[in-house]
């Protein structure tokens, strides 16, 4: 009965939201959602679903638990140093109008990190910087751009001083960075992607998908990149056969679209 209850929940979620929980690793997803369901006092997933459809805040909490909105600026700093010191300068030598996408951007730390790097190199005003996520609650936080100090622990000092304004315990992103990013809702597994990106950053999300869903995503990301463009993935998301997606390793956790 418990399995049938969860399967019906998956079916109802897909019918009402286009989110297919069957494409996520079942054990991890079921464990996280069971914890949330019991915490909120619902005996079954069907009862939990019915409550979510009436309570927007509960639905946002479900999305937050599903998408693991744990993010920081400059997460894995040595990888961001490569973006800052190697890859972006290389791109700017060829083209000053970069097209950059932060996919599954969560609460905005990642696209704002990208915006800081582009601004510091004088390329932000000419860049097209796009950020998407499936979670309306996360996108709302990203647009507000107000963060706790723990999110800033890896931000280089020169960036922290220049691009944040402290008010009591909170840190506000400067207005010029906020205006530079176009935030939109998107379901990576269902929606079509724009094309011609110089850089796509999608980190610490793909790990939660099944192998079949990963395969589809990597194909879609590859098609969205321009020849020579880069895909930047998370530290647990190595692509073992990048050639099947017309990609090749550019550095650890960076893959380049073939064709240049």
Automatic annotation (TrEMBL):
Give a yes or no for keyword Glycosyltransferase in this entry: no
Q: Which SUPFAM superfamilies match?
A: Chemotaxis receptor methyltransferase CheR, N-terminal domain, S-adenosyl-L-methionine-dependent methyltransferases
Span of the secretion signal?
Answer: none
Pinpoint the CheR-type methyltransferase domain residues: 1-260
Q: Which domain of life is it from?
A: Bacteria
What InterPro entries does the database record attribute to this sequence?
A: Bact_Chemotaxis_MeTrfase (IPR050903), CheR_C (IPR022642), CheR_MeTrfase (IPR000780), CheR_N (IPR022641), CheR_N_sf (IPR036804), SAM-dependent_MTases_sf (IPR029063)
Q: What is its EC number?
A: 2.1.1.80
Alphabetical keyword list: Methyltransferase, S-adenosyl-L-methionine, Transferase
Q: Which reaction does it catalyse?
A: L-glutamyl-[protein] + S-adenosyl-L-methionine = [protein]-L-glutamate 5-O-methyl ester + S-adenosyl-L-homocysteine
* Broad EC category: transferase
One Pfam family name is CheR_N
**Entry protein name:** protein-glutamate O-methyltransferase
Q: Which organism is it from?
A: Paenibacillus germinis
Query: What lineage is this protein's organism placed in?
Result: Bacteria, Bacillati, Bacillota, Bacilli, Bacillales
